[in-house]
Amino acid sequence: MKIDKKSKSLIKRRELLKKTAAMSALLVVPRHVLGGSAHIAPSDRINIAAVGVGGRGRSNIQSCANENIYALCDIDDGKVAETLGEDWAAPFVGKAKLYRDYREMLENEPEIDALVISTPDHMHTPIAASAMDLGKHLYIEKPLCHTVAEARFLARRARETNIVSQMGNQGHAEEGGRLINEWVADGALGVVQEVHCWTNRPVWPQGIGRPAGSDPIPSNLDWDLWVGAAPFRPYLKDRYHAFNWRGWMDFGTGVVGDMGAHIIDHPYWALDLDLPTKVSASSSRFGADLETFPLASKIHFEFPAKGSRPAVKLTWYDGGLMPERPAILEQGRMMGDRDGGVLIVGDKNTLMHGVYGRDPRIIPETNHVDYQKPAPTIARSPGIHQEWIDAIKDRSKMTTSHFEYSGQLSETMLLGNIATVRASENKVLEYDGANMRFTNDDGANAHLDKDYRAGFGLV
Question: Could you tell me which residue ranges the Gfo/Idh/MocA-like oxidoreductase bacterial type C-terminal domain spans (predicted)?
């Protein structure tokens, strides 16, 4: 893991912060101390802090609002005001403590039990690292992280700190995902060796270089904190932050990072794919002068055989690209849904579903009607947020998109991005997952990790 030199000087401060939090905890005797390590009685409300409160952050807070929303942290005061102004926010208006800097919040509020992180991708892991050091449970909005090295770090640190973790890919908790798993396990598709996943994204700027100039920074916005761990660049109104950060390589993970957790997730889960051994890609114009992901790409993943399952090839399409229409699909019938979809192709049947695993159907429809569906074998979920909350209160319960699972899923998606960046090298990248390295392209290995701006490293 690359750590900038200035961040190394923060190690002593971080250790002091841990000790200060521990001493404060002894003074106020919080409930988790009274009940033992990480214990919260099921009847108690969890003290949840949210970092990033606009957009998905607001939705995530709303989904946890039956607990105690203890603190809100956002670099944009306007987003905080909007969230506090929502009708559903009434129970905690005036009660939640407000911060701009997550580091100050964690240092000053030892009573926080858990964090919901809904920032741009590049800040997920720096915030999570600080929180895990203090034993805080974590819900991180998808995609889990910004680099492959971060995916490994989060899974490892979650184990070491014994926190309850969850990635926010809500479709993983829905009924469709369980049906897909059960039908594949039932043998409805026969032997599966081919999967196709696609999305209509991007719906934000991509395929462009860095713009010139700068704009005055609004008084309600802390731009330095927004840039955070990334290399600093001037503020430009609505160019980077707002919704447009997803396409910039310094801040987001592009289309596959945004939507892969909702689309690749379901065949990945049902087929138990683990990590690919080969990845290759083609894309629209891409060059050293561009700092965003391409407008359209096609990524090929090859997963090795596992147990009785043979090797599987999964192809990802974005930017309007789609797989060939199956001859067995009825004329006039949409493939997937308006946002994308999946085809899981077996030697007996093909299963099609939409984004989030919704509306899974065996095609053609006559085959779906004839299929005798098995009885449920997978426990149903109360929802992606409630899974996490229940597991915090009752450690005998499990989350289903914990960092072990979501870390490997995110790593797979990020390997696809690396293949896209390296597409001009005309190689099939060979990946050694056990050692987290490409064996035939040292240039690709440089993209597995990154440097962090001083003050935001993983220390």
Answer: 214-280
